[in-house]
Amino acid sequence: MKARLSEIGLTVSAWYRAGHRALPWRETDDPYKILVSEIMLQQTRVETVIGYWKRFLEVFPDIASLAGADTEQVMNMWQGLGYYARARNLQKAAQMVVREYHGRFPELPADIRRLPGIGAYTTGALASIAFGLPVPAVDGNVLRVTSRLLLLEGDVGTPGVKRGVEAFVADMIPTGSASDFCQGMMELGATICTPTSPVCSSCPADKLCLARKTGRQLEFPHKQAKSPPVESRQIVCLIRDESGRILLQNRKEGLLSGLWGIPHFESDNDEPDADALMERLGLTGLDAPEAACDRIHPLFAEGFVGTVTHVFTHRKWNMEIWSFLWRDLSDGPGPAEDFTWFAPDRLSGIPIPEAFRKVLRLAGKQPPEEKRKNT
DNA sequence: AATTCGTGGCT
DNA sequence: TAGCCAAGAAT
Length: 375
Description:
CATH class of the largest domain: Mainly Alpha
Structural class: alpha+beta
Strand order of the largest sheet: 4-1-6-5
Number of helices: 14
Helix content: 25-40%
């Protein structure tokens, strides 16, 4: 078996050396820049990452600049990329490298693994790509490729099977070619050994693949189906003041934390519930359910704007947008501390997730803002 | 082990 | 089109 694994490793690394896609992070040997690419690439497509990676490194060209940056600006560079905990963990990792390793990126896999946001895969990727160490980097590509090559019957979603694959892959790594092999396995999965239509006739490991030999390529990898997103009805409250500014909340935890959001709450009622909105805004000094339409109340309901749907990995928001005017009634109470008023022309400069940008576009509070392109 | 955490492209 | 999926990690 080991001879077989070793032959696969030599074949894949040689294939990678002979030719591969030119990706920008393959033109550097700076561990920091490679780290940024690896974090961005987690569960994210290459084409999407390219533009973000270039822009990010223009603003944070080295690990010290990222460590010392304003977190809001880091989130801003990440806006639209998703999985925002990655951005906050990346900055924490940068700060840890600066503080505990004097800005010198740690080479020991055990040290790399301790950095926030870096798990088994990213540790292997950095160790092998940036430092040439023989450490397995098992991502979704490698799970698929390996499960096909070896006809692995286990569910690749389970930690046990994944550890088993790591052991197999570790025995594939050719001496002195850890980087080419690591990237070769992923390149193979991304360009040849694809999920639904593998091009086996072009595969360098054609003769070594047990799935190919038995015509069972599409049966692998085995994985259990994910449960569909849970739907909910969200009442989204677009609140502007008399000077046209919009009220946003800095989200502190859970979904979309670290980004600015439009005040909203889950509801199954037909009309927006004034009590729920008051509670959402932290306005405990006021009462009366009818208050949202009362003339002496700061919040004046202007009416229904429209609906927006947004699907997250495991949630689906069916948003109903309602418009309110916040009237300055001299001494009245204001929104809670995590709320801030923003002029419409400031919205393009702060991190706001796609779900709420859709709402802003619907309401015409923000220019359509051309989609970021890879340049 | 099972959930949580975004977004966009593709079938 | 509704679901699947992408260079996963944290809890």
